[in-house]
Amino acid sequence: QVQLVESGGGLVQPGGSLRLSCVASGGTFRINAMGWYRQAPGKQRVLVASITSRVSTNYADSVKGRFTISRDDAKNTVYLQMNSLKPEDTAVYFCNADLQVLTKGRMIRELYWGQGTQVTVSS
């Protein structure tokens, strides 16, 4: 069973930086794409950034120029470097993975979510 485990959240002052990590483990799989979403209190979960197997990236307009997504395929890990953080970046950040998972001899496309990590930007 594939699992996604996130780390790196916490409390940071405005203008500060954090780096989130998400490791995919368990089973046999191939990564199509991975991404980060966030959900603020009372709001819907929205895409922050994503990266495909061909290292094509996509960012929400609100984080362009401040956040950078990257991946280490050898470690099955995706990172989100967050700089110049603002109070409005406060949310629970969720890792998402679009995988091809070996299931009963076939590669089946499946989507997975991490448990979420809290990011709080406050002075």
Q: How many distinct helices?
A: 0
The general outline is elongated
Q: What class do helices, strands and sheet pairing give?
A: mainly beta
Order of helices and strands: EEEEEEEEEEE
Average pLDDT, to the nearest integer? 96
Instruction: Give the DSSP E fraction (strand runs of 2 or more residues).
Output: over 45%
Description:
With 123 residues, the chain is mainly β. The chain has no helices and eleven strands. The strands form two sheets. Strands 2, 4, 5, 6, 9, 10 and 11 form a seven-stranded mixed β-sheet that branches. Strands 1-3-8-7 form a four-stranded antiparallel β-sheet, with no helix packed on it.
Features:
123 residues, mainly beta, elongated, four-stranded antiparallel sheet
